[in-house]
Design brief:
It contains 19 helices and no strands. The longest helix is centred in the first third of the chain and has 24 residues.
């Protein structure tokens, strides 16, 4: 086999790999695309197309520090690439280097006023900087130039949400999810809106979908707990709250809802133990002391219930539930005493 023939086969293989890698990019198979573009770079470390493809893959994988390094390599090859500057800006934004990200992104837009990622970056940066009217206008432009990028619609949804335009925001997040159903952020935002407007039944399936993507996502667990507590689905509430406790052992919200789930299931002894942990985390909330008194009352520990209710009344003398449980506990405590006094002892 001649050297020319061997080289021809190699070039054909490289072309096939390049085509396959770009197909993976189109279908958002980021890991597969990253692997092939990395392979291409072993043949030519300055392959600009492969470097740009690798940058897109890393962006999709949320690997922003490696993305920044690739952008820097690309700028050494072509310092006037709008795409490279936009990728650099995205990496800098995600690394919380907002001023540098803004400068790089503005340079990208000077070179190409129609580059979609640069408009997505600009709307995101403006949202982070609290420039809400500008962010809303920019998000419309991002959707116009990048209608098939779920991030453009997600940014539009956030911008609309900031102006309390909830129905339009929901439509934008729905469009984002139609383009990519694994958009965790869009799922979180839909849950946030449904929680705000009290559509808790619709929150639960969205939370399930989000937790399939990331079982440890704190935001989704929080939304799920809010919805299940409102719906009084205590068995599921117990599971989610306990999972959140494992992730965040000192989280008051998690412990409170774990305690409420046990109470709702009638597991008062366990609820009482969980409530002790709640009171360690927040010892000055009259509601928790009143709940402690109520649980002790349900356990027929009337003397303790009265004592705890009295403590709650000292924290807030105008809190009616504390007064009611105090009176009920005292009444039954004295009734029990009276019954003991009236007992006749037979020889």
């Amino acid at each position: 086999m001649t050297k020319e023939h061997t080289n021809s086969i190699l070039q054909e293989t490289i072309a096939q790999l390049r085509h396959q890698a770009h197909e993976h990019l189109e279908t958002r198979r980021w890991l597969q695309a990253e692997e092939i573009f990395s392979t291409l770079l072993t043949h030519n470390a300055e392959d600009e197309d492969a470097l740009l493809g690798l940058a897109a893959s890393l962006d999709g994988l949320n690997s922003f520090e490696p993305l920044y390094d690739i952008a820097q390599r690309l700028l050494e090859i072509n310092p006037n690439s709008a795409a490279t500057l936009a990728y650099k800006a995205r990496a800098l934004q995600k690394m919380d280097r907002i001023s540098e990200a803004t400068i790089a992104n503005d340079q990208a837009l000077l070179l190409d006023t129609n580059f979609g990622l640069a408009w997505i970056n600009r709307s995101g940066l403006q949202l982070l900087q609290g420039k809400l009217p500008e962010a809303l206008r920019t998000s419309y432009r991002a959707v116009e130039v990048a209608p098939n990028d779920p991030r453009s619609w997600a940014n539009k949804g956030v911008a609309l949400l900031n102006f309390n335009r909830l129905a339009e925001a929901l439509e934008a997040f729905d469009q984002s999810l139609a383009l990519d159903s694994s958009q965790l952020f869009a799922l979180q935002m839909k849950c946030e809106i449904f929680c705000r407007i009290g559509r808790m039944h619709e929150v639960v399936p969205l939370v399930q979908q989000a937790l399939e993507i990331n079982p440890n996502d704190i935001t989704s667990l929080t939304h799920g707990i809010q919805a299940l507590r409102t719906l009084e689905v205590f068995d599921s509430l117990q599971k989610l709250a306990l999972h959140l406790i494992k992730l965040m052992p000192d989280n008051l919200f998690a412990w409170e809802n774990y305690m409420r789930s046990l109470r709702g299931l009638g597991k008062f002894e366990e609820a009482n133990e969980a409530l002790d942990r709640v009171l360690e985390l927040d010892p000055d909330d009259v509601r928790f002391w009143t709940m402690k008194a109520d649980i002790l009352y349900r356990l027929k520990r009337y003397r303790e219930a009265a004592s705890v209710a009295e403590r709650a009344r000292r924290i807030d003398s105008d809190y009616p539930p504390a007064h009611r449980i105090h009176e009920k506990a005292l009444k039954l405590m004295y009734q029990r005493k009276d019954r003991k006094k009236n007992l006749k002892i037979f020889p």
